């Protein structure tokens, strides 16, 4: 199952590039939830968006909690 998700997001990233979006990060696995896979991108107006996949109930599953992981980045100011 994971292989089909990787292929789907890789194809999504390629389509985004063809549409002029800038890939900021990914496609890659993330630490946010078990099985979390995403691609973060900016559209031509520099608006950041994300396509993601979380299998099953994700963080809604009983006993699971949010983990920011190593790929979480906080910026105090945005530069042009």
Mean pLDDT reading: 76
The total count of helices amounts to 1
Could you give the order of the helices and strands?
A: HEEE
Coarse shape: elongated
Distance separating the two termini: 39 Å
**Spatial strand arrangement across the major sheet:** 1-2-3
Low-pLDDT runs of 5+ residues are none
**Beta-strand share of residues:** 25-35%
Secondary structure tally: strands: 3
Largest sheet: 3 strands, antiparallel
In words, what does this structure look like?
The protein is an alpha+beta fold. 21% of the residues lie in helices and 25% in strands. The chain has a domain at 2-55. The chain has one helix at 2-18; strands at residues 22-29, 37-42, 48-53. A 3-stranded antiparallel sheet has the order 1-2-3, covered by helices on one side. Strand 1 and strand 2 (37-42) form a beta hairpin. The termini are far apart. The model has no long low-confidence stretch (mean pLDDT 76).
